[in-house]
Amino acid sequence: MHCSRFLQLDVFPAGFGGGNPLGVVVDGRRFDTETMQRIARWTNLVETTFLLPPETERGSYRVRIFTPRKEIPFAGHPSVGSAHAALESGLCLPRDGLLWQECGAGTLPVRVEGEGSDRRLLVQAPAARIVASGMAAEARLAPLLGGHALGRLGGALVDGGRCWWLAELADSSTLRCWRPAHADIAALAAENGSMGLCLFAREGDGLAVRAFPAGAGIVEDPASGAANALIAAYIARSAPDDPLAQGYEVSQGREMGHDAHLSLRIDADGTIWTGGGCNTVIDGHLQWL
User: Fold this and answer.
1) Does residue 12 sit in helix, strand or coil?
2) Where are the alpha helices (DSSP H) in the chain?
3) Could you tell me if 244 and 207 are in contact, meaning their C-beta atoms sit under 8 angstroms apart?
4) Cα–Cα distance between 163 and 58 in angstroms, integer?
5) Alpha carbon distance 245, 234 (integer Å)
6) Structure pTM?
7) Beta carbons within 10 angstroms of residue 56's beta carbon
8) Strand partners, 22
9) Could you give all domains of the chain from N- to C-terminal order, each with its CATH number?
10) Which tens digit of pLDDT belongs to each residue from 146-201?
11) Closest listed residue to residue 74, CA positions, set 63, 85, 86, 84
12) What is the H or E stretch that residue 281 is in?
């Protein structure tokens, strides 16, 4: 019987229980890849991560990230939650305000800001590229949007660790009331192996966001770190004079009974940081043969 500390976290919550759940197995050394996948399938969370010792001198820890169906190289809320778990478990300490996470997307810095319940963690997103934009992208997305008007940035397909179709809607009320055709989003995701469709609209000084990762078998995601990082990269690349191109705050998940709050930071060189707060909800032990 293998026994390892197990945390279930609430990542990016605006209030307790408002964020995206994550399971973290603190000592993943006891488990091979097949067993990790079986555990992730059993937890049935969007992602379950396994913390491991770093393989480089620079690394603070290594993480493997699993959905119930497969291992993935990077995702935002599992990265932030894994950093929280590594700190809470005493596996590492920040160096000059940073942790260094080794994952399938490389060694990524994680900013550690504040302490205790006020602590916020922001992971540097992998470099992104705009695969398609303009009329071609918008024509492909138009059948899914039901004639709703697009905002100034329109639609695009963006790749950076994960690949997402993105579209800005003209107003947040339309976004929050929009009823997706999930089968059509799944077909869109299958065309090029993307995660699915992520919609955003301006709300106050930031964005309201809804994400539909049909490519991962998920109907709607309450808080999407990687997808939000791609939105920020798209804004920074396509509209550098946009007020949002300096960074902004995101509201996500209210349409599905959650209330998530994400922070997006955009450095002068276009580097994207995505993150927020994290709470430990369950602290126990995983027992697995």
Assistant:
1) coil
2) 33-43, 76-88, 134-145, 172-177, 182-192, 225-238
3) yes
4) 28
5) 9
6) 0.95
7) 9
8) 9
9) 2-126+276-288 (3.10.310.10), 129-271 (3.10.310.10)
10) 999 999 999 999 999 889 999 999 999 999 999 999 999 999 999 999 999 999 99
11) 63
12) strand 278-288
| Cβ proximity of 254 and 261 under 8 Å | no
| Strand pairing category for 120-124 and 106-113 | antiparallel
Question: What does the H/E/C string look like for 61-118?
Answer: EEEEEECCCCEECCCHHHHHHHHHHHHHCCCCCCECCEEEEEECCEEEEEEEECCHHH
Q: Which pLDDT band, with edges at 50, 70 and 90, does 117 fall under?
A: confident
Q: How confident is the model at residue 98 (pLDDT cuts 50, 70, 90)?
A: very high
CB 265, CB 244: distance < 8 Å: no
Q: What percent of the chain has pLDDT over 70?
A: 100
Of the candidates 229, 216, 252, 186, the one whose C-alpha atom is nearest the C-alpha of residue 40 is: 216
Q: Give CA–CA dist 277/169, Å, rounded.
A: 27
Residue 129 sits at the vertex; the CA angle it makes with 128 and 134, to the nearest 5 degrees, is 135
Tokens of 108: 């990524």
